[in-house]
């Protein structure tokens, strides 16, 4: 019996040592690398811009087009105009210190993952000129630091979430050239923006936009 107790204790001590060492900071950095690697796996990359994205490195801070802060946490992803095609991945929501998510002018398809709304540090969300479908997630309304939200020139559908009116820091909003419907919200942050932010959504209506809808419809004849 005493031998068993001794054995159990040493196993327990070993476990405690293992657990405490695996919960140190580099594990968090790896989680961000894993999230980015999930994106690499989900997209086609004919120009090999993601070639340096090696998941065996301790963190993703040396990867091409990835920027980190001094604590080795990812703050920028600059993948605009990179000829990427494929889907966005929910794992992007794990990049808790990300400030710039630049994925404009690619050929991305599928929905904007609702998990993007978990990127609490985000200042700029640039997904314009892709082929994204589905609705604008209402979860984006929790991005309280967001300054630039450019979703124009995709194939987004549904209503513009009213909750986005809470984005008090928003300086640029562009959802033009999509297939959004309903009416343009006018409360909160929406009062700052003109028709230029919403043009070319044939099914979108709003008190300020009536003339524009008619103008666009006329322009097509
Ligand atoms: C979107 O898809 C259409 C048709 O599949 C294609 O012609 C167009 O080039 C795509 N746009 C972008 C920005 O990838
Ligand atoms: C939004 O983007 C479209 C092009 O897709 C452009 O014509 C329009 O001027 C932009 N609006 C704003 C407010 O930047």
Task: Walk me through this protein's architecture.
The protein is of the alpha/beta class and 221 residues long. It has a single domain, classed as Leucine-rich repeat, LRR (right-handed beta-alpha superhelix) (Alpha-Beta Horseshoe). Helix content is 22%, strand content 21%. The longest helix has 21 residues, at 2-22. It is globular, with a radius of gyration of 22 Å. The model is unreliable at 15-25 and 213-221 (pLDDT under 50). This is Leucine-rich repeat protein 1.
What distinguishing features does this structure have?
alpha/beta; 6-stranded mixed beta sheet; 22% helix; 221 residues; disordered C terminus
* Oligomeric organization of the protein chains: single chain
Radius of gyration: 22 Å
Looking at the overall shape, the CATH architecture is Alpha-Beta Horseshoe
Mean pLDDT: 87
* Fraction of residues in helix: 10-25%
Largest sheet, spatial ordering of strands? 1-4-6-8-10-12-13
Distance between the termini: 91 Å
CATH topological fold name: Leucine-rich repeat, LRR (right-handed beta-alpha superhelix)
User: Largest beta sheet, briefly?
Assistant: 7 strands, mixed
The percent range for strand residues is: 15-25%
- For the record, the CATH class is Alpha Beta
Q: Give the beta-strand count.
A: 13
- State the helix count: 3
Name the ligand types.
Answer: 2-acetamido-2-deoxy-beta-D-glucopyranose
Number of domains: 1
The ordered H/E elements are HHEEEEEEEEEEEEEH
Q: Which stretches of 5+ consecutive residues score pLDDT under 50?
A: 15-25, 213-221
Considering the protein shown, what is the CATH homologous superfamily? Ribonuclease Inhibitor
Structural class: alpha/beta
**Outline, from the CA principal axes?**
globular
Protein name: Leucine-rich repeat protein 1
